[in-house]
Amino acid sequence: NQWRYPIWQFDPNARGGIVPGLSEVLAHLRMSPAGVALWLIQPSPLLGDKRPIDLLRAHRMDDVVRVAQELGHTP
Fold this sequence. Notes:
Number of helices: 4
Distance between the termini: 35 Å
Helix content: 40-55%
Mean pLDDT: 91
Largest sheet: none
Number of strands: 0
Low-confidence stretches: none
Radius of gyration: 12 Å
Strand content: under 5%
């Protein structure tokens, strides 16, 4: 009966403590919370086989947001 948060979404050096760009990505993805988490932590062929969360941490937010927008508009 406790809330648990995935550690990969936090960045103690970022403003607000959350990985920069994560909220923008979440706004575009139309998946279940588990689907979003899985997408963020698995390598994506749409991102050069890099994990979206790693690209966000590397300040490559534009690439990840663009792919999230594309996935969000997929029927």
